[in-house]
Amino acid sequence: MKLGELKPADGATTKDFRRGRGHGSGNGKTAGRGHKGQKSRSGSGGKVGFEGGQMPLYRRLPKRGFHCRNTKEIVAINVSHLNVFEDGDVVDIAALQSKGLISNPRDGVKILGEGGLSKKLTVRVNLFSKSASEKIEAAGGKAEVI
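The structure assignment produced for this chain is given below.
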């Protein structure tokens, strides 16, 4: 059997039913919508969430908390992860992505002070914690904010 010879089993598919094509079709005239009424008319979808006048579910449920739309999503990396670089390297967002330390920088990258650093590096990212910048400079490197 080849890929081009595949077809559905007999009886598995039927032709689309064409409504409103006369009395002989068995579904002519009103086309299964019945006589008159809201749902017989075209464009009778109604509003999203409308429950016939009953208080809709989205208004019955309690709302809690607050979600700020202006927050930034910052990716955090510890100083100890920077030991994968060689002495004297310039570490920026592209270098962190190439080493697989971050996959998506989102709105910025921040270096945190967890662990130790044994290499002399020039680190150029968006944010540093106070302890992280101290550890980078103690190892002989530079912490530059971009």
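Interim note for the steering committee: The first strand starts at residue 75 and ends at 78. Residues 107 and 138 are 28 Å apart (CA to CA).
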